[in-house]
Amino acid sequence: MDRKTWSSKVTYILAVAGATVGFGATWRFPYLVGQNGGGAYVLVFCIAMIVIGIPMILAENAIGRRLKCNAVDAFGGKNINPAWKIVGWMGLLGAFGIMAYYMVIGGWVLNYIAQIAFGMLDLSQVLSFEVTSAFYEQNIVSDPLAISFATLVFVLVNYAILVQGAVGGIERSAKYLMPLLFVLMIVMIVKNLTLDGVAQGVKFYLTPDFSKISIKLFVDVLGQVFFALSLGFGVMITLSSFVKKDEGLVKISIITGILNTVIAVLAGFMIFPSLFSYGVSPDSGPSLVFKSLPIVFSHMPFGGFFAVAFFALLMIAALTTSLPIYEVIITTLQEKFKIKRKSAILLVLGTIFIFGNLPSLMATNLLADVKIFGKNIFDAYDAISATIFFVLTSLGCAIFVGWVLKDEAKREIMQGSEKYAKLVNIWFWYIKFVVPFIILVLFISSFYDNFLK
Fold first, then answer.
1. Contact 17/260 with Cβ under 8 angstroms?
2. What is the phi/psi pair of residue 362, to 5°?
3. Is residue 236 within 8 Å of residue 64, measured between CB atoms?
4. CB 94, CB 233: distance < 8 Å
């Protein structure tokens, strides 16, 4: 396989930003903030991004660029036990798990855009949570055929971009889609902050209530950090394998972590001020943007326009994230099994659609009686990926860097980052001893809470 490199540091950062922003920042982060009491969750999340997120970005970047290969073979090398490649395979399983339900949410968003744009969801009639809940139940939960079609359309859009190449397709899409996403986000934030009575929403979002801090909150935050930064499912490893050897990984990792944190926090300003302005509860969970926000848009002048703009923003965020996650599996198939790119893309997208997307979108209707660990199929994919595979893969990466690669990892990081020598030494000690302990403790707590309690 001809392994190209990113055309510039900026395009790589845009690609990574696209991979890490996605639904993690625009869909998952806001509803977790709402469920966990607001400001306390935001504070812990920002701290966790610094103490766990950025060090783990640097670790995965070191693994990925070291051998410049796929996310499984990246755990190989001279005098390294082949068993370490199990960590890479776990990452691929996590990538499959997240895409199994991620594309379905993309189908939901496409469905809402069509419903609003063509007047089937008349915002002038959206006057209560009961109305939006009924619409959600009718058009999402109880209409698997429509969502199947919308999900398939979203998958085909991904296909059209992926066939342009591992670097070419992702880089080109990120170069145009990320600036558009930022513009739409700023428009929505400005609109929200100019509404009457937004102070209560801003206070809920930014003022920590320390009584809300709990083990569950820490577990939710850790899962969100991994989800938001695409850690633990091979994305960072795959994307960094296309980075030139003279690029400074320290600076790139810090920029990635800060950018993702800023965007996630900004995403909250698109939502919470307006919720409180119109007296809408912020704790409706994963369906927050589908049940609660239409009420907000119904009160706004030009509400239909802003509703379509918001869901278009979600669609762009979903696309910039789904592309690199697919690429993790596609690149592995190309390099390990010598499958031609177009065939690998069809195999990956088709397999995930049939065995992941279809069961997920039928989880609340035709397959509602099927339970895995007491959860429906959609929730099980999320819980197993985020609670088991993401965390264990990240734990494996930290141990691999600190205890197996050792000085080799430091040498890789130092290329292009010579002026950060002292920081790299501190990072190495931290990733070797502290990070594995934190991840292991929270993994045990999370596993117990999700599967044994």
1. yes
2. -100, 5
3. yes
4. yes
Q: Using one digit for the tens of pLDDT, what is the confidence trace for 191-247?
A: 888 878 888 889 999 999 888 888 888 888 887 888 778 889 898 999 888 888 888
Read off the pLDDT of residues 120-135 as tens digits, 9 standing for 90 and up: 877 777 656 677 778 8
Find, among 51, 56, 25, the residue nearest to 234 by Cα: 56
pTM above 0.90, yes or no: no
Two tokens, residue 79: 């005098």
For domain 9-452, the CATH architecture is Orthogonal Bundle (1.10)
Question: What's the one-letter identity of residue 56?
Answer: M
CA distances from 442 to 46, 362, 392, 448 (A): 17, 31, 11, 10
3-class secondary structure per residue, 315-355 = HHHHHHHHHHHHHHHHHHHHHHHCCCHHHHHHHHHHHHHHH
**What are 355's two structure tokens?**
């065995």
The ranges assigned to domains in the chain are 9-452
Q: Is 24 helix (H, G, I), strand (E, B) or coil?
A: helix
Cα 169 to its chain centre, rounded Å, is 19
* Residue 145 CB coordination number (10 Å): 8
In angstroms, rounded to a whole number, what is the distance separating the alpha carbons of residues 359 and 420?
Answer: 48
